[in-house]
Amino acid sequence: MKWNSYNTGAYEGMIAETICIPGHNGDSIHAYYSRPIGDGPFPGIVLIPHMPGWDEWCRETSRRFTAHGYSVLCPNIYERVGHGTPAEVSMRNREQGGVADETVMGDTAASLGFLKNQANANGKCGVIGMCSGGRHTFLAACTVDGVDAAVDCWGAGVMHKADAPDAPAPVDKAPDLQCPLCGIFGNDDRFPTPEEVDGLEAVLKELGKEYEFYRYDGAGHGFWYHDREAYRQAQTMDSFEKVMDFFDKYLKTE
Hints:
Distance between the termini: 21 Å
Strand order of the largest sheet: 1-2-4-3-5-6-7-8
Number of helices: 6
């Protein structure tokens, strides 16, 4: 149990701020960077934003992981369409056809490199994403060097091809999965459906990949989002504990 397990006499502190990093193709992009105060060493997490945008929920979630001992970088993968409120930027991104997978993978690789190169890093770094960010997380775990653990939260579209007719489905990259994968899914979700989750699990099992999936009754898409009607408190807390145990197992060990 991670929640409320800290010692009330212990010191806790963090720094959280917006910085700029070189992303895909060297583009300067904004990123939200939260990390514990102290010498460490600390493991890192790249949080890939979801389709609602580079929003306040992503920032809050970054700080929540930092409170549990992680340096977290959340890159603005929507930087190329300009700035505004998260809703405005997300809409503009959709109108312009969405962000290319290649760009997101480049931003993710840059974020991993940034975290692993910090003086107080322990050299291990995971990736997590929700919805479209979950799909991107799966792709990163298969195609980006240096991912030590990955968490796909209800990633939509992993089993489907992109709009480009010659583009492979992310699941086609599964043979190249290079790290343990954790999956968090709601059984009432339609993107992905339980059947799609079954299909992904069957592929991973056949390939002998290291994975652990957790599925929740009474939960649909985005059930961690406390600012939306989809929020489910009990399922959120249980699955967050599962994610923390997973990251601790693969990122905090020697």
